[in-house]
Write a structure and sequence with these properties.
The complex is a heterodimer of chains A (615) and B (306). With 615 residues, chain A is mainly alpha-helical. Chain A has helices at 5-20, 36-52, 66-71, 80-95, 122-125, 130-150, 157-182, 195-204, 211-221, 223-230, 283-296, 299-303, 309-333, 356-372, 377-393, 440-454, 458-477, 508-525, 533-555, 562-581, 586-608; strands at residues 21-22, 25-26, 112-113, 185-190, 248-253, 347-348, 354-355, 414-417, 433-437. Chain B contains 15 helices and 8 strands. Chain B has an 8-stranded mixed beta sheet, sandwiched between helices. In chain B, β7, α11 (227-246) and β8 form a beta-alpha-beta unit. Classes of the chains: A mainly alpha (615), B alpha/beta (306).
Chain lengths: 615, 306
């Protein structure tokens, strides 16, 4: 593997601070005008590694590593770093809170009009977006965990007060984001012979079966999900959509709070704005929501006890949706037996749009489902082939043609129509809104590494790691290399010659996603290396021979001479070491054993050379 | 400001580092005065290259004699006139006052009495008004000198004066534990100070640590190590960091860290720019660390805790 996460993350930290920390203050700024998602992404570039990778933690200034301190030297010393972060986080939380103390998750400058030249009205720019909910969950949890550890070493009342205020703000933001996700979840049902129904059946029909047969199979495969969904009622449920047993359905997250979503009962005095989003799941926002929710029931969240009682209740509600959605999409992806629907690229959505990007999104859900059920290498290998093909088709690992349509997935990105955003709660009508997404390469890398870390066979793991290296090489090329933002992303023209070199300001959207990939790599490297039985058996066989020869040498009384005694003592200690590592690192054990066997044979050979001599 | 330099163990480089800090502060334009309270072994003169007071001053005019009441004022040596180093004669431009109050040659440790406390308090008060920085180099361990310092600073007459404490320790397991003990342990600085009337939190906040003779695994000094030695050193260093954090002598209360340097180690002398640039006997990292320490000593921000 060529990716060096520690070095790359340090470089990214250095670049982030150099760009963001000017004249002693954290400046939210980038390619897009500051907005609730982009600013969170910018902060997460520091906060996420600090919360997810042990070596990068900043919450104990006494233990901050030297290279971390140096990378963040602009903030000051190790004790200054946490305080500067607290100030930046507080500014963020305050900036995105209304006068009535309700956190804001507005799409802002990330939203674009569908038709170039039209202008979005301010009310549209204020619409809450699932991306922002999800980023806020991750950021709030990172903040809360960070404070929980940091506050233990703080005694100064002024700092303690700042901590407790930020804690309150982060916790309120977390609650609001969870409520937002509860109100953006949706179930969309349709008759089997409607256009959506036919699209769904075509999608999963990999064996040319008649429509009725497919519908019946779908009903059966999804029966458990359907039963589960009927009980999902808090926030925007889907029970009423499933009343008609004949209807097919899909579930997941829309782009924001859905139309007519009821309010969620909570002890916090939060405003809950009326929803306008179309009541149908978007693959992209579904993946985004699933990733954010995953942080809620991570080990870290549990160990540090970051959730309040109410948040734990919401977490359970979200977990049920998470499970059902995961199950739904991975069932669809794996439909078809011999050939999975997922393997039939590109994926086609029920509204008839198709793109390699949708295939990648379905792969993302499937990968996480495979992680959950600790899938075997056979399933993983199939997903690996899909990832491989997507990276070639997406022109990540192959050169693009001139006018290659695949390049559009990267720049300007896939444009998702935010249905419903044109009809506002106030009755005003605005232009159609789109949300451009351009994370193809990073999404590909993240899932490739996830699958690689699951693979137990060396061949499969090796294949996936090589693919990760290739995707990383592509992403690495796309770094900005000049100006204030050098070391950040994204300069797509470096990878796609037909794209004009453009904005030199950083895209926090992509930079944050690159950072996430590096964190996944770092955590994979932290685990024990792959061990296989072949290697272990070889180590065992060698150990038996080495041990035996060593005992023979001792039996021969070789330890009389001091030189021999020292050598044999040394070899004895090496044998002990080989035994210690045999279980966890059989390869290393073999290397030690070979060294010992070689040394023992030198003694034997020296002795043998004497045997032919005359009396 | 009165700065007390202490250490639990001998041989930490407390005196040589303090002398270097005093020199640098004076060179930066701050009036500095240095009191040799290392009663058992008053050798500040030797470090400052003052031959006439290498092992304390003769003639019964030093700090011992003053505290015991046999002279009305201790001798004050203007170091710019007494330092026997060519590079510092005449004193560099912009240098402020640098004065040494040496101990008596042949003097030793002695128990303290009330009159001694009065005399000490009068002296410190006068010096604190006259100088920006008064460095008091105390004997190692829980000495009479330390008792005296804690006693005096608890008196109302000195309450208005900022007093701070530096604990010097080498970067080893035993030294870390010892330094933490001296600061926070039974009969340590904080516990004794509270007994004598100090406010616990205030005293606690005024204690900082200086690490001396620190091997920096990343420096060129260690380029010649075997890879195995380097790996071991890195691991040991990380262990020590954790130990220091657990004992509350971690980086958040660290004022400075002086690398291992042959000149400090074997010669115990002032390090001048010429030693680094011209003679090239001292490392530039050492010079930089001492500069930074001198700057931080006088910078209120660096004394602000978490």
């Amino acid at each position: 593997m060529q990716i060096r996460p520690r070095q790359s993350l340090l470089d990214l930290w250095r670049a982030t601070v150099a760009y963001s920390y000017r004249d002693g203050t954290w400046t939210p700024d980038g390619r897009a005008e500051p907005n609730s998602t982009s600013d969170a992404e910018q902060l997460l570039c520091l906060m996420y590694p600090a919360s997810q990778v042990a070596a990068f933690k900043l919450d104990r200034p006494d233990e901050t590593a030297r290279d971390m301190r140096e990378a963040l030297a602009q903030f000051g010393g190790a004790a200054d770093i946490p305080q500067k972060l607290i100030t930046a986080l507080r500014d963020y939380m305050e900036r995105y809170t209304t006068g009535s103390n309700t956190p804001v998750f507005a799409g802002g400058s990330y939203l674009e009009p569908r038709v170039e030249g039209e202008l979005l009205i301010p009310e549209q720019q204020r619409l809450d977006i699932v991306d922002s909910f999800s980023m806020s969950i991750t950021l709030s949890l990172a903040t809360l965990g960070f404070l929980k550890v940091f506050e233990k070493v703080v005694r100064r009342p002024a700092v303690r007060e700042q901590i407790s205020e930020l804690e309150k703000m982060a916790s309120r933001r977390l609650t609001a984001a969870m409520i937002g996700l509860l109100r953006s979840f949706t179930v969309h049902s349709f008759a089997p012979d409607s256009p959506a129904g036919r699209a769904l059946c075509e999608r999963v029909n990999q064996r040319g079966l008649p429509q009725e047969k497919i519908v019946a199979e779908l009903h059966e495969a999804l029966a458990r999900v359907r039963v589960g969904l009927a009980e999902v009622t808090v926030g925007s449920g889907g029970a009423e959509a499933l009343e008609n047993e004949e209807y097919l359905f899909e579930c997941g997250w829309s782009w924001g709070v859905v139309k007519d979503a009821p309010r969620v009962k909570t002890g916090e005095p939060l405003e809950q704005p009326a929803g306008v989003a179309a009541r149908r799941p978007f693959l992209y926002f579904t993946v985004v929501a699933l990733d954010g929710i995953l942080d809620l029931f991570s080990e870290r969240t549990r160990i540090l006890d970051l959730l309040t009682e109410e948040q734990q209740v919401f977490m359970r509600y979200l977990q049920i949706r998470w499970d059902l959605t995961q199950q739904y999409w991975s069932t669809l992806a794996g439909f078809g037996g011999e050939r999975w629907a997922l393997e039939d690229i590109p994926w086609r959505t029920t509204d008839g749009r198709e793109s390699d990007y949708y295939s990648l999104l379905v792969t993302s859900v499937t990968v996480e489902a495979l992680v959950q059920r600790r899938a075997g290498d056979l399933d993983l290998a199939r997903v690996a082939r899909v990832l491989d093909e997507l990276s070639a088709r997406g022109r990540v690992t192959r050169r693009a043609l001139e006018d290659d349509p695949a390049v559009e997935m990267h720049v300007p990105g896939v444009r998702l129509n935010l249905f419903g955003a044109e009809e506002l709660p106030s009755g005003e009508i605005g232009p159609d809104v789109v949300w451009p997404v351009s994370d193809f390469a990073t999404a590909l890398l993240k899932r490739t590494i996830r699958v690689a870390s699951l693979a137990r066979g060396t061949a499969l793991r090796d294949q996936l790691l090589r693919l990760s290296d290739e995707i990383w090489a592509h992403l690495h090329r796309r770094r900005l290399t000049s100006g204030l933002a050098h070391g950040l992303w994204d300069d797509a023209s470096a990878a796609f010659p037909q794209v004009k070199s453009g904005d030199q300001a950083p895209s926090w959207y992509l930079t944050e996603r690159v950072m996430e990939c590096l964190v996944v790599v770092a955590n994979m490297i932290n685990e024990d290396p792959l061990r296989n039985d072949r290697l272990r058996e070889t180590a065992q066989d060698l150990a038996i021979e080495a041990d035996h020869l060593y005992s023979q040498e001792l039996l021969r009384g070789s330890t009389d001479a001091a030189a021999m005694r020292n050598e044999l003592d040394h070899l004895g200690r090496r044998l002990d070491r080989a035994r210690v590592v045999a279980g966890s690192k059989p390869g290393s054990s073999i290397a030690i054993l070979l060294e010992v066997l070689g040394a023992l044979d030198k003694l034997a050979a020296a002795r043998q050379s004497r045997q032919g001599d005359p009396e | 400001m009165i700065l007390f330099a202490t250490s639990d163990k001998g041989g930490t480089g407390r005196s040589v580092t303090s002398c270097n800090v005093a020199l640098r502060c004076a060179l930066q334009g701050h009036d500095v005065c240095y009191l040799d309270f290392d009663f058992g072994s008053p050798t500040a003169g030797a470090i400052f290259h003052v031959d006439s007071a290498a092992r304390g001053i003769t003639g019964g005019r030093g700090l011992h004699s003053y505290l015991e009441g046999s002279v009305s004022a201790p001798v004050e040596l203007d170091l710019w006139r007494h330092i026997e180093r060519a590079e510092l004669r005449p004193p560099p431009a912009g240098a402020a006052r640098l004065v040494l109050l040496p101990g008596d040659e042949g003097g030793g440790e002695f128990p303290i009495d009330d009159e001694m406390i009065d005399r000490c308090q009068r002296l410190l008060r006068r010096l604190a008004e006259e100088f920006e920085l008064v460095i008091v180099d105390l004997s190692a361990g829980r000495s009479y000198a330390l008792q005296l310092a804690l006693e005096v600073t608890a008196r109302p007459a000195l309450r208005a004066v900022t007093t701070r404490w530096l604990v010097f320790h080498r970067w080893t397991r035993q030294h870390i534990i010892a330094a933490a003990g001296l600061a926070y342990g039974d009969h340590g600085i904080v516990a004794t100070g509270v007994d004598k009337g100090h406010v616990r939190d205030q005293l606690d906040d005024s204690v900082r640590f200086v690490r001396t003779a620190v091997p920096a695994p990343e420096s060129s000094q260690f380029a010649g190590l075997l890879p195995t030695q380097a790996a071991w050193l890195q691991e040991t260093d990380a262990e020590l960091q954790k130990l220091a954090a657990r004992r509350r002598v971690g980086r958040s209360v660290l004022l400075g860290s002086v690398p291992l340097d042959p000149v400090l180690q074997w010669r115990e002398q002032l390090i001048l720019d010429s030693d680094v640039r011209t003679l090239q006997i001292a490392n530039k990292e050492t010079n930089a660390a001492l500069d930074a320490l001198a700057e931080d000593v006088l910078n209120d921000d660096s004394w602000e805790g978490l």
